[in-house]
Write a structure and sequence with these properties.
The complex is a heterotrimer of chains A (262), B (340) and C (344). Chain A is built from 9 helices and 12 strands. Chain A is α/β, with parallel strands linked by helices and 262 residues long. Chain B is 78% helix and 0% strand. In chain B, helix 9 (201-228) packs antiparallel against helix 11. The chains are: A alpha/beta (262), B mainly alpha (340), C mainly alpha (344). Chains in contact: A-B, B-C. At the B-C interface, helix 6, helix 7, helix 8 and helix 14 of B face helix 6, helix 7, helix 11 and helix 13 of C.
Chain lengths: 262, 340, 344
């Protein structure tokens, strides 16, 4: 863990709750820029809530979240949407919407009354669709797409936003295995060709280990571990965070830790 | 039309197709309005219509054309446009293809406000009644959305049930007021079903102001409404200020529905059915939906207003009854095909 | 729930039910006592017990009691219909007025009035046939809704939507016919549609009772098969209790009860929304108790509304159904805003 790197996102002492229940408990976390950070943890640990708080879908009762040293609470709606893109957990849109219409929405934060659609918007849209391999589907209705294709379209929408930070909340839960890998490879490539900061919430520990540059374990609304996957994926740590005994081997294909429940 | 071309000009090869679509609709509207001037108890030829405008001579022909038919030919399309666009906004806001000024009780609420204003508050000026209609529509929409959202979420079932109940309540209240004044019952009965006959042209001016204001708001809201078609989290993530957009949408809905109610009374089912047709023709982008809905609504109500002159010839049926009957049948068709 | 708590609960329910029954009796006595002349309560009680003097007996049993009895039957049954609908759709906002039944009945009434009047606007058949027309219209409307809905009838919202569509068409035709007709019939039809408990005869009550009692018995039988309210869709289906056919039967039952109830009194559907609500709030979960409570509350509501109409608005004949709607509105809104419902 290299703490001297100045983090793009800084989460400071954030507490968030609904009524009596506290979901995030004075949580602090630096998020390294240009890397894929994966938030993992048992159900109810607050990982999704944290992601949404970063994108200011929830307001913390104490603490603050900074993006490049500016408090997100102080940034305007559209300005923030130009900095942080979010792929929500179960996004929905009308079935008759075309792929192009949906990706187009990603340009919303860039439009104002006096700057209607311009060629740069078209270029960004096309580039996003091309980058996710859905350009040839542009006139198809999203209701006619397969799960994997649809998810790529959603990612294209977020890409079209041209943000430096991208947050994805459980993006592969409902996909089959092949599509899961394909989608996460796509996500991983984001940091490579644009130096973007990617924050992911993943349910599956092995997927998390395979795709993360930085892995973060949350439990009961607090960060209990943060670092490279190899450092965190030990039987003791996993038992402490998730409960249950496991064995750890190294994935022969990718050199990442693989967790096998006993 | 200019703006549509400009905003999509750089985009895709849709522009020529759009131009044909909207041009075609506008032409159809012009034809409908012309027919509205010509057809009725007596049929007048285009030449007679032309002469009535250019060489008004006080004859029965010219009086009927200018004083009776002209206002109708103007009010009918305006009413249709207002209700059509209002329906588009409501259906997006509610994320529900069945929501409309009728099923949400907005028509009933606006009617109630007008009846209350004229019977109890003694309001008689057109401006006053128009304002009452808009306020009635606004309050009802706030109430319906507030109740539906507050009691567990904007699920389609909930919002429709709340709206239908609101409509029933509105009608019941109107009836109490009417029962105390039976002489006015017959006259109001006609109006309460939506009627464009015997309307002074000044109504068009009043309604026109609210219509234009509402339409402008709708136009400005269009990109945000596009984003609202996705779920709340996604829309927020895109930077849509949800509360503000919804609030302004309510105002737009109130203005558009209020203008239609003031001019023609509650004309039913236009706001329900027209958005479906608009989407089918023009796609989901709201700039297009709104333009198509305005034109289609205008055509629909104008044609309906012509039909009412013949349905129970020689008497006239209220426009609202015809649109409700047609709209009901169309709704049944949509439901059977699971398109709604 | 512990045994002690459970017995406390059922004791409390029993008390509430008892209170309801008492309130019901009070309202009925009041209704009989009120009229063009006020009859002292003691006299009312005596007359009802069969010991009153002759004139009073005639007034009570020939003039006032029928009206009250009709209100009880109609109000109570509509409440039961509403209870059925709310249970089967698992949604407290369902009510008989959304099924298009009442609009169909209205159309039937208007058609009847149109068809059977001669040129001088006098009815050529006894007005007593009007309820038959209303019932026929209602049943035709129900049938249309179910036939059109076909297999989609198993979904609550789809069925409601079909109901709305059919109601709209029926209402439109009704309106046109009323425009064509003269005002005498118009105002009469309008009154009926708003829900009016008129002076009724025992004959009418017999007919209504004849229709309603078998239906209510059927309801009691059907209630045995209703799954517990807290079981969700899928669970109750796996326990084998919630087959689609059964749901359609319940809808049909509710619709038929409504048709019979409104035949004489017209559009009092709002009672069918509020009474079951209140009953469930006050009386808990047992379906039989809640159904009985719904009946009592519905009857009380309509009788009370009728009292208000006769006392407060005389000599205007404001329809009772309208009064229930007006009084019910604030309560209904308040109720909805408070509860966080879990169903959709």
């Amino acid at each position: 863990m290299d703490e001297t790197v100045k983090a793009r996102i800084t989460i400071e002492g954030v507490t968030l709750g609904y009524g009596q229940a506290v979901v995030l408990d004075a949580l602090s976390l630096p998020v390294a820029p240009g890397q894929v950070t994966v938030l993992a943890g048992p159900n109810g640990c607050g990982k999704s809530t944290l992601l949404r708080a970063i994108r200011r879908l929830h307001r913390p009762s104490t603490g603050r979240i900074l993006v490049e040293d500016i408090d997100v609470a102080k940034i305007g709606h559209k300005a923030l949407a130009r900095q942080i893109g979010l792929l929500a957990q179960s996004p929905s849109a009308p079935e008759e919407m075309t792929v192009e219409d949906l990706v187009r929405l990603g340009r919303y934060p860039h439009q104002t009354m006096f700057q209607p659609w311009n060629p740069h918007d078209t270029a960004a849209m096309d580039k996003a669709m091309e980058g996710t391999g859905v350009l040839h589907l542009r006139d198809r209705r999203i209701g006619s797409l397969s799960g994997g294709q649809l998810q790529r379209v959603w990612i294209a929408m977020v890409l079209a936003q041209e943000t430096d930070i991208i947050c994805l909340d459980e993006p592969v839960n409902h996909l089959d295995m092949a599509h899961q890998i394909e989608c996460l490879n796509l996500v991983g490539a984001l940091k490579n060709d644009h130096g973007r900061t990617v924050v992911l919430v993943l349910h599956d520990l092995n997927l998390a280990a395979r795709h993360a540059d930085v892995l973060v374990f949350l439990k009961d609304g607090k960060v209990v571990a943060r670092g490279a996957p190899e450092d965190l994926m030990t039987p003791d740590t996993i038992e402490e965070v998730f409960g249950g005994k496991t064995a750890i081997i190294t994935d022969p294909l990718h050199g990442r830790p693989l967790c096998i429940p006993r | 039309m200019h703006t549509i071309a400009a905003s999509t000009g750089a985009m895709t090869t849709r522009s020529p197709r759009d131009a044909m679509l909207y041009g075609g609709l506008a032409a159809a509207l012009a034809v409908a309005m012309a027919c509205s001037m010509m057809l009725g108890l007596k049929i007048y030829s285009p030449a007679e219509v032309w002469r009535a405008f250019t060489a008004f001579d006080g004859s029965e022909t010219s009086v009927v054309i200018v004083n009776l038919r002209l206002p109708r030919a103007i009010i009918a399309p305006m009413t249709g446009a207002g209700l059509g666009v209002s329906g588009v906004i409501i259906q997006t806001l509610a994320r529900n293809r069945i929501a409309s000024p009728d099923t949400l009780g907005l028509n009933a609420g606006a009617s109630l406000a007008v009846v209350v204003a004229s019977f109890w508050l003694g309001v008689s000026s057109l401006a006053g009644l128009s304002l009452a209609a808009a306020v009635g529509a606004l309050l009802t929409s706030l109430l319906v959305f507030g109740i539906a959202a507050g009691a567990g979420g904007l699920s389609p079932l909930r919002i429709v049930l709340v709206g239908v109940t609101m409509a029933g309540l509105g009608h019941a209240l109107v009836e109490i007021i009417l029962t105390s004044n039976e002489a006015a019952l017959e006259q109001l009965l006609f109006w309460l079903s939506g009627a464009i006959v015997d309307r002074p042209a000044s109504l068009a001016a009043n309604g026109g102001v609210m219509l234009v204001a509402g339409a402008m708001l709708a136009w400005v809201l269009a990109p945000s409404l596009d984003a609202l078609q996705a779920d709340d989290a996604t829309a927020s993530g895109l930077g849509v200020p949800l509360g503000l957009v919804r609030g302004v949408s309510f105002v737009a809905i109130a203005l558009l529905t209020g203008s239609a109610i003031t001019m023609a009374g509650p004309v039913g089912f236009v706001g329900l059915v027209i958005p479906h047709a608009a989407r089918a023709l023009a796609g989901l982008r709201h700039r297009h939906q709104i333009a198509a809905a305005a034109l289609l609504g205008a055509i629909y109500v104008t044609v309906a207003d012509i039909a009412v002159r013949y349905v129970i010839y020689p008497a006239e049926a209220p426009v609202g009854a015809v649109t409700a009957a047609v709209g009901g049948v169309v709704l049944l068709g949509l439901l059977k095909r699971r398109a709604a | 729930m512990s045994a002690i708590a459970a017995s406390h609960k059922s004791a409390r329910t029993g008390v509430v039910l008892g209170l309801l029954a008492t309130g019901f009796a009070v309202v009925v006595i009041l209704a009989v006592a009120l009229g063009s002349t006020w009859m002292p309560i003691a006299d009312v009680a005596r007359t009802l017990a069969g010991l009153g003097e002759r004139t009073q007996t005639i007034i009570v049993f020939n003039l006032r009691m029928p009206r009250v009895a009709l209100a009880i039957l109609a109000g109570g049954s509509i409440a039961v219909a509403g209870f059925l609908l709310q249970r089967v759709t698992r949604n407290e906002l369902a009510s008989p007025s959304v099924l298009g039944v009442i609009d169909g009945a209205a159309l039937g009434v208007v058609v009847f009035l149109m068809l059977f009047s001669n040129e001088s606007n006098v009815l050529v058949v006894p007005i007593a046939y009007q309820p038959a027309a209303s019932a026929i219209g209602a049943v035709l409307a129900i049938a249309t809704v179910f036939i059109l809905a076909g297999r989609q009838a198993v979904s609550a919202i789809r069925l409601l939507l079909f109901g709305i569509a059919v109601a709209a068409v029926a209402k439109a035709i009704t309106t046109i016919m009323m425009i064509v007709g003269p005002i005498y019939r118009t105002s009469q039809a309008t009154r009926w549609m708003a829900g009016a408990v008129n002076e009724a005869s025992w004959g009418e009550i017999q007919i209504t009772g004849l229709a309603l009692i078998p239906l209510l018995v059927l309801t009691l039988i059907a209630l045995r098969h209703l799954p517990p309210a807290d079981l969700d869709e899928t669970s109750s289906r796996s326990v084998g209790l919630n087959t689609p056919v059964f749901r359609v039967v319940i809808f049909g039952l509710a619709a038929l009860i409504t048709a019979a109830a409104v035949a004489f009194v017209g559009g009092v559907g709002f009672v069918g929304l509020m009474a079951p609500h209140l009953a469930r709030l006050l009386l808990g979960r047992n379906v039989y108790i809640v159904m009985a409570g719904s009946f009592l509350l519905g009857a009380m509501m309509l009788v009370s509304a009728d009292i208000i109409v006769r006392v407060l608005f005389a000599p205007l004949e404001v329809p009772a159904g309208t009064v229930t709607a007006v009084i019910g509105t604030p309560y209904f809104l308040f109720l909805l805003m408070r509860r966080r419902s879990s169903d959709g």
